[in-house]
Amino acid sequence: MSKIVLMLMALCSALGSASDGDKRAGLTVAPRWNKVWLSPRLKGNWVVIRYEHKFAKGQAPAGTVLVELPPEVTCLSAVIMPFEQQPCDGGGARVLLKDVPLDGSKNGMYLCLATTLKTGANAKGRIWAEWKNGKSVVTEFPIQVIETPVARQPREIMTGTAVWPYMIASWPDFYQQYASLGFNQMNLWHDSIYCGGYRDKGRKPYEDLIHAAQSATEQRIMLSLNASVSWNRSIIEKDHDAQALFLRGQRGGPCPSYRGPGFVEGIHYNAAIADSGISWIQSDEEEFGSGGFSQACVCPRCEDRWKKWLKENRPALKHLSPEEIIADQAEFPEHWRAWLWFRASLTTERYKLYKEELEKAVAKYGAHSSPKPLLGWWAGAVDDATLEGCMQDGRALANTIDQVILQHYYRYGLSPRRFRETFRRQCWALAGKNCYAALDSDWEDANVPGNMAASALETLFAGGSGYSVWYGPYMDTRQWTELAAVNDLIAQHEETFLKGKDTDLFRCFATEGKEVYFPSWSQDICTATRETDAEGLLLITDYRKERKPVWIERSMKYAGPLALIDALTGQPAAQLAAGQWDFFIYLKDSPWKLLVWKKGAKL
Fold this sequence. Notes:
This protein has 15 helices and 30 strands. The chain has an 8-stranded parallel β-barrel with strand order 12-13-14-17-18-19-20-21, surrounded by 4 helices. Strands 2, 4, 6, 7, 9, 10 and 11 form a 7-stranded mixed sheet that branches. β24 (525-531) and β25 form a beta hairpin. α12 (416-430) packs parallel to α13 (451-461). The longest helix has 33 residues, at 333-365. It is globular and about 75 Å long.
C-alpha cells in the first residue's frame, strides 16, 4: 500500500464516520472552497475556515472546532485564538480551537499549516464542531500539494496585498516568503494609525512598526500603512458645524467641506505615523458613500462653496440651491451632474491637504518605507456610483495623490470580463496616470483558477501601474501561487508593460460550428497587445463558462513570419509564416494565456 493510503488509514480511530453528528443542528464547518492547498516550499500555508449555519441571530452557541490532519501536515498557528494540538492514535494530529462562536462572528478563523508532503501528493483531513448537547456533521476535505514558484519582484510595477500584523506573526519568515512570491509592496492594516477617534495621546513609535519598515525594506518591499478614517470623531460628534446637514434636517458627520479641528487633527495624527519610518499611507476612507450621505451636504458652508464652484466651473448654469437640485434630479440633470462634480472637488481638496501633511511629517522624521512620501486611496468602483455615492473624481485625484486604487471586486457584481471593461474605462479617464486595481480574493470568481492572474494582467494591458489584493488573509496557497507566477511574468516583461504601446495587432473570433469561420464578435473573448521595438506581448482571455477553441487573427500592420511563445511555460504556442493571418488556440485550463515574440526572431 502507498504511503499516502497508510497515512490516511492512520487518522484518529476515535473519529466516527462522516455521517456522525446532528444534521438537524444545521451547522457546517469547512475550509473555504471545501479544499486545502499546501506547498512544501512555503513555511506557512493559509487556510480560511468558514461556517454555514441555521442558528437564529444571536443564538449560535460557543463550542470547539476540531480539525484532524494527516501525519505530514502540522498546524503552526490558529490566528487570534489559542489552540491545542493533540496526537492521534496511529499518527496525525487533532487541532482543537476552543470557545469559538459557531456563527463565524469571531475574526480570525484561520489556520497556518506546514507540510512535508511532496508536490503532487493528495491527502485528506476532517473538521467538525462540538458544543454543549450538540455536534455538527463531520466534513472531510481534500488536501492537494502544489508547487509554488520562486518569483522575481518587479522593479516599478506595483504588486501588493493588504495584510494584518497577525498574518505576519503567524507565517514564519513572512517578509522573505512574501518577497519570494514576487510581491514588492505591502499595505499593512495596523491599529496604531488614527482610526475611529481612539488614540494614545502620548504615543511613541510602535516597535513592531519600526521592525516592519526595516524588514520590508531589506526585502525590497515598499510598505504602506492603511488609514480607514482620517477624522477625529470625538470632536465631530460634539460640533454641529463639523456635521453634515441632510435634506430632511438630520445631522451626521462629517461635512464634506469641514476643515476644522476634527479634520486637521485627524490628518495630522495619521501623517505622524512617519515617526515609525513609514512614508506611505493608503487611505480606505469609508465615511461617505452610505445612506443619506449620497446627497450630503446642504449646510450653509457647502452652499457657499457650491455657489463659488458653479461660477468658476459651470458659468453657463444659473444657480439653484442644493435642496432644489436634490429634490428634483430629473428636472435638473445638468445641475445634478454639476452638483456631483462639485462634491467630488471637496474630496480632492481634502486629499491635497492630507498629502501636504504627510510630506511635512516624512521630512520631519526621515521616513523611508517608499522612495518618496506617497498617498494612495482605495477608491470606490469605477462606475457613476463612485461619483454619486463616494464623492470621488478619479481624474482630479490622479493629479493630486499617488495612487487611485479602484475596487474592482467580484462581490460587487464585477465579473472578470466586466472588470476588464471598467478598468479600461478608468485608465482611459485617467490617461493611465496613477491608476491601480484592487483585486478581490474572497468571492467565488476569485477561486476560479486563472481569474486573479488574468485581472492582474488586464490591469497592465489597459495601462494601469499595478495592483493590490484585498486581502492577504483571505488568500489560500493556490491563490498565492497563482499570483507568484504572474508576478514573475510581470518582472520578466516589465519593460514591455511600462514602455510598450497598444498596437491592436491581434483580434480573436469564436468558432461556434464547423461551417462558421467568422462568427459574430464575442465580448467574453478578448485580446490585448503591447509592443516595444524589441518585444511583443499578446494577452488572450476567454471568460466564457465553457471555453472553446478560438481563432486569433492579425492585421496587416505586420505580415512577416512570427513565432509566438507561451510566456508561462516557454513552449511554442503558434508559428505564423509570412502572410499567414491566423492561428487556432484553446484556453482549456485557464481563462488567460500570455504569448510573447521577439522582434527580428526567425521562424
